[in-house]
Design brief:
α2 packs antiparallel against α5 and α3 packs across α4. Helix content is 36%, strand content 12%. It is built from five helices and five strands. It has two domains: 73 residues, Beta-grasp domain (Ubiquitin-like (UB roll)); 67 residues, [2Fe-2S]-binding domain (DNA polymerase, domain 1). The structure holds FE2/S2 (inorganic) cluster. The site of FE2/S2 (inorganic) cluster (FES) has 12 residues, from loops.
């Protein structure tokens, strides 16, 4: 089947029920979506499908066919400059092991598009509902996320 990933059409072989995450990592060679829990609990595998944040470990391939799939690799510009959400996280040093960060960034970009005037309560609720992170950078993650969401 065909997938459009980060603007490129990819031919994927395999069962249409295969998780999108596996196709992105194994067939497309993209390393930003991570396998964490594999059960829709941790959010490490979050990517965009038509701009919506989706846990790709739970999304079968068929659900992404003929849609625009975007991973963190697709957020930065073609010239290589970082996306504003990446810049905010770099500025705040909002990374420890980094495993969950790509998924969090994808959620934040989708959140900003969906809720341009998102409050800090909405931000906290969104992250609490969609992401698990066990490192010690929650304060910096929230500061970077808030800065990104408040920027014009
Ligand atoms: Fe998909 Fe945890 S790996 S939600």
């Amino acid at each position: 089947m065909k997938l459009k990933v980060n603007g490129q059409v990819r031919q994927i072989r395999g069962d249409s029920k295969t998780p999108l995450l596996y196709a992105l990592r194994d067939d497309c060679g993209l390393s930003s979506p991570k396998f964490g829990c594999g059960a829709g609990q941790c959010g490490a595998c979050t990517v965009h499908v038509d701009g919506r944040a989706v846990q790709s470990c739970q999304a079968p391939l068929w659900s992404a066919e003929d849609r625009e799939v975007t991973t963190l690799e697709g957020l930065a510009s073609a010239e290589g400059s970082l996306h504003p959400v990446q810049e905010a996280f770099a500025r705040h040093g909002a990374i420890q092991c980094g495993y969950c960060i790509p998924g969090i960034l994808m959620t934040l970009v989708a959140l900003k598009a969906r809720e341009p005037h998102c409050t800090s309560e909405q931000l906290r609720a969104e992250l609490a509902e969609r992401h698990l992170c066990r490192c010690g950078t929650h304060t910096r993650i929230l500061a970077a996320a808030q800065e990104f969401l408040e920027a014009p």
